[in-house]
Amino acid sequence: MDDTLIRTIDLSEYRDREDYKIQKSDIHFLIKKRISSSLLKINEKEDYLIFLRPYKGLLMNYCLDNFDVSIWSLAKGDYVEKVIKKVYSEDVFNKLKAVIQVSKKNTDSVTYKDIKNKKTFKLPNYNEGYIKSLDYLFNDKFYSKLFNKKNTLIVDTSTYTNSINKLNSIYLPELCLEEADKDLFTLFMWLYKNKNIKNIQTINKDIFYDKNKILCKTQIKKSKKTKTLNIGDIVEFNKFNKKLVLENINDNDSGIVINKNKNNYDIAISHLDKENPAKDLHKIYKNINISNIRKFNMN
Fold first, then answer.
1. Is the sign of the CA dihedral 143, 148, 152, 158 positive or negative?
2. What does DSSP say about strands 71-76 and 119-124: parallel, antiparallel, or unpaired?
3. Domain spanning 55-211 has what CATH number?
4. Can you tell me the distance from the alpha carbon of 107 to that of 124, in angstroms, rounded to the nearest whole number?
């Protein structure tokens, strides 16, 4: 969850640190880059500034519609549940099959607690690091009904997690501190193309191998007409497939191209539902003609 869907800054911890001025400048940097953020207060001593990773709504809602989804976090206390409900909604939290968090950390092991299924279990540390071992889930009497080697994929920024679960994991780079961070969209596209795979262990999952080639310093300018579009382009379009009318916000939307067929394109959208701001709205519009689409310039 942390560093994959969000990046969290513990404000209460920073206030007690000698390098608070440096950390404060980091916060201003993130805000300057216009990464969406939200404040979360756990109790009188804990409050957090949460930066939301681009495309987190598109990814989560697509996964909930097509897969069984769980959260496994190294955080503890009320943090995990409250962050999920703050970043997404209580409805999303209720749809998760398992929410595993830390109950206790020792020098040689970590005890986890599944707050959805009211289960507790302990795992040994690996090279002095805390791990999330899928093998435990595969062999446990209860969890083996939900998870097995063929149907389970864990997405994590931790090299520990990925080294332990080699055939069942995708390494996800941490949040790129720029508008152009498209890693969650890349992950969404991979899932979109491979959702019907029978055995997750048999397919290549090195989708971020060329991470250094991803541009992190691009910025979005205004939209313009173009003769062709590529998968992954960010666009503005008329969702009713008629002549583009920029003035009418009810007719237009913005999204990401996910498929193309000659001059027609499928476009995925993901944003807050205006009628219910606590929820993310996600939808795929199909066969939108290029005459009704404007591409956002990137530089």
1. positive
2. unpaired
3. 3.40.50.1000
4. 9
Does residue 200 sit in helix, strand or coil?
helix
Q: How confident is the model over 70-129, as pLDDT tens digits?
A: 999 998 888 899 999 988 889 999 999 999 999 998 888 999 999 999 999 999 987 767
Alpha-carbon span 215 to 299, nearest angstrom? 10
User: What pTM was estimated for this model as a whole?
Assistant: 0.74
For the stretch 57-71, pLDDT in tens is 899 999 999 999 999
Cα(178)–Cα(35) distance, rounded to whole angstroms? 7
**How many helices and strands in the chain, by DSSP H and E?**
8, 15
- DSSP class of residue 69? -
| CB-neighbour burial class of residue 119 (10 A; exposed 0-12, middle 13-18, buried 19+) | middle
| Structural contact between residues 172 and 208, judged by C-beta atoms closer than 8 angstroms | yes
- Bridge partners (DSSP) of residue 265 are 260, 288
Q: Which residues face 272 on adjacent strands?
A: 280
Six-digit token string for 203 = 């397919």
Name the residue type at position 47. Answer: D
C-alpha to C-alpha distances, 154 to 5, 117, 150, nearest whole angstrom: 13, 19, 12
Q: Residue 216 corresponds to which tokens in the numbers above?
A: 């992190």
